[in-house]
Structure formats: structure tokens, C-alpha cells
Amino acid sequence: xxxxxxxxxxxxxxxxxxxxxxxxxxxxxxxxxxxxxxxxxxxxxxxxxxxxxxxxxxxxxxxxxxxxxxxxxxxxxxxxxxxxxxxxxxxxxxxxxxxxxxxxxxxxxxxxxxxxxxxxxxxxxxxxxxxxxxxxxxxxxxxxxxxxxxxxxxxxxxxxxxxxxxxxxxxxxxxxxxxxxxxxxxxxxxxxxxxxxxxxxxxxxxxxxxxxxxxxxxxxxxxxxxxxxxxxxxxxxxxxxxxxxxxxxxxxxxx
Length: 255
Description:
With 255 residues, the chain is of the alpha/beta class. It has 9 helices and 12 strands.
């Protein structure tokens, strides 16, 4: 490439196997901020929340790579003081539109409720709220210290409801970007990361090695295949039915 590519990433634990060896080439943001910057074309490619790719028809998605779940994901969950079917208000993180929309879908379709969602203040405690949505490293930190509180894992809930994987994020290219070389770089980084999971585990300080080995082996799924694409389409269908997206488009995949 004639110019250095602008690559947007997220500093969460679940992304590290996808950027192994190219960490110094990444511009890091929280998911919602990355989505905003991608929309404004500040990055050529980014590991965007899947809601961004469904909301704006301006991206081509890299085939074969995702941050997904085929069951409990352990880093996206609702912690709650009242039974799920009685929740009236939910404190949600502003960091991820995808997780908030997933929670809306699960409560509407599974429990026929549409509680009020409001921003969760920093340092919030469950004793001050009926329910709180947590994601990413913050969710992992919270769960390891509040294990006795009820945790509703959204990855497991989606798979139970649909029988399909849930895709939280994927690499998305701007349409006008030359993709071949960048795609090769990102595929090599994933292969390198998956081959060095133990090194990633040893280098991490956010959780215990035991937790991380299980997390990378059994919770996060890094492939984007036919089942994952079907899960994306099902999510898109729910979003349209609920009016969260005004129209739907078929995602375009980069082989």
C-alpha cells in the first residue's frame, strides 16, 4: 500500500488474538467511539460492532473473522436484582450499541417487555439499580468480584433463543479502500494470535490465566462462517421489526 493504512481497534481482551503482532499499527477506541469514527471515515478498516455495519450501508465486511459467541461469552451480561420479566429500568453502558440492541431484542422477544434504558453512571453498584448491562473487560472484572450476583449472559441467551451464534463485531472496510493487502495483514494477525494464545494469556493482567484460557478456548469464537452470517441476518431482522434500524441491507463480504 502506498500510504499507511488507518486501522481502528478496541483494547478489550477479546480483540487481542485478532491484532497479535500488529498492535502498534492500531488506533484504539471504545466500541461506540470506533463506530462513530468509522462512519466519519477516520479509519480505513476497523473491528466495528456489528450494529454499525447493519446501521450504515457503507462497509464491506471481511469474511472469516469475527468476535462471536456460540454460547456463554462471559463478557457481555446483565446483572439484575429483580426477576428478568419484572425489570422496568436498565442502566446500560454507552460503550456499545450492539450489546444494548441485543439486550433490547432478548427482553422484547423472550420476555415481551420493553424497559426504560438509561446511561449507567461510572462506578455504579447494582444496589442502586434494578439491572445493569456490562461489557468487555469491565464485565470480566465485575464478574470475578461479584460472582454471587445474578448474571444473565447475553451470548448464551441469544443462542438459546435462536439456535444461532451471535456476532458482536467484525472487521469492516470502507468501500473505497484497497482491500487485498489489508485483508492479508488481518488474516495473518488472527492466525498468529490463535497460535499464541498462551502468550496472550501470560501477558494479560486483567484476569487470571485460568479464566483467560477458558475465555479464549470456550467463550469467544473468532470465525465468521455461514452460521454466523445467519445469526447476523436474524439479528438484523429483529432490529428492523423493532424499529431500531429503518431499513435493512445485505452485508457485502470480502473474501
